[in-house]
Amino acid sequence: MAGTLIAFSGKGGSGKTTLAAMLVRELVRTGAKPVLAIDADPNATLAMALGASCPGTIADLRDEMFAVAQEPSAIPKDRLMDQWLAELLGEEIGYDLLTMGHPEGPRCYCYINGLLRRYLRLLRDNYPVVVVDCEAGMEYLSRLTVENVDTLVLTTEPTAVGLTTVRRIAALADALPIQVHRRVVAINKVSDADAAAIDPSALPPAQAVVHIPFDEDIARCWAQGDPIDDPDHPLRPAIVELAHQCLSLNSQSTDQPQEEPTI
Ligand SMILES: Nc1ncnc2c1ncn2[C@@H]1O[C@H](COP(=O)(O)OP(=O)(O)O)[C@@H](O)[C@H]1O
Ligand SMILES: [Mg+2]
């Protein structure tokens, strides 16, 4: 059976990578393993946030593929690509990491997006949970890199710009031929005062809303390039709630989808 696919989307800087990394660690701690973590952002930082190794990227593979394509070979290219996938997977305790990377120079992303889609299909059955850290904006949805999402985490800071972005992403997800079974709005870097001031009608329609407080330590870890791996981290209760909401696919939600706000 295909693993539960959780995709983090939202504006750049909203905290997608941070929350994806903390969620992966939480899922590993609580036994939903092995987790497959996918860094689908060309500006890959998930390995750093997890403190994981990255043996190679899909973009590197594409460059090798181009070199091999010049030479005659008895092995079909498809088979070669699938064999190479094993070499791209970073194996960590409780999870594996696959990194998309970015093509050198002005080359287009279509090919590596196609490979990512192919690998996602091949791998999804082997993991109970797949966590995808998507690139900022909406490109990955419109290019259909991620076709069938169990939980779309709409990540936003408590700002008008962040909220507008997640509303647009939610609307685009509705308009595209992809399935999104559940939406969770993660309002990140939020203070108690911010949380109280958020107008619920500014949120995109979602089954759940989770608040993740602003935390100085996260910013310090990022500034120093340290992974966020402390199990007693003050944000842990919020991440536990996020994990619960992301995996509550069949439970009756208390927050019914809201009407699309009139802006
Ligand atoms: N809850 C939080 N509290 C404080 N800083 C945070 C929090 N979440 C993320 N950050 C900081 O916000 C910045 C952007 O986070 P990042 O996860 O890279 O965002 P994205 O992946 O959406 O671009 C990083 O410097 C990170 O340390
Ligand atoms: Mg990121």
Short recap of the structure:
This protein is 40% helix and 21% strand.
Describe this structure in words.
This is AAA domain-containing protein. GO terms for molecular function: ATP binding; ATP hydrolysis activity. InterPro entries: AAA_dom (IPR025669), CooC (IPR014433), P-loop_NTPase (IPR027417), ParA/MinD_ATPase (IPR050625). It is built from ten helices and eight strands. Strands 3-4-2-5-1-6-7-8 form an eight-stranded mixed sheet, sandwiched between helices. The model is unreliable at about 250-263 (pLDDT under 50). Helix 1 packs across helix 10 (about 235-245) and helix 3 packs antiparallel against helix 4 (about 75-90). The longest helix has 16 residues, at about 160-175. The chain has one domain: P-loop containing nucleotide triphosphate hydrolases (Rossmann fold, 3-Layer(aba) Sandwich). It is of the alpha/beta class. The site of adenosine-5'-diphosphate has 17 residues, from helix 1, strand 7 and helix 9. Magnesium ion binds near residues 17 and 133.
CATH class annotation: Alpha Beta
Strand order of the largest sheet: 3-4-2-5-1-6-7-8
Report the uncertain regions: 252-263
Gyration radius, in Å: 18 Å
Percent of residues in helices comes to 25-40%
Average predicted local confidence, pLDDT: 86
CATH superfamily: P-loop containing nucleotide triphosphate hydrolases
Count up the domains: 1
Could you give the count of β-strands?
8
The geometry reads as globular
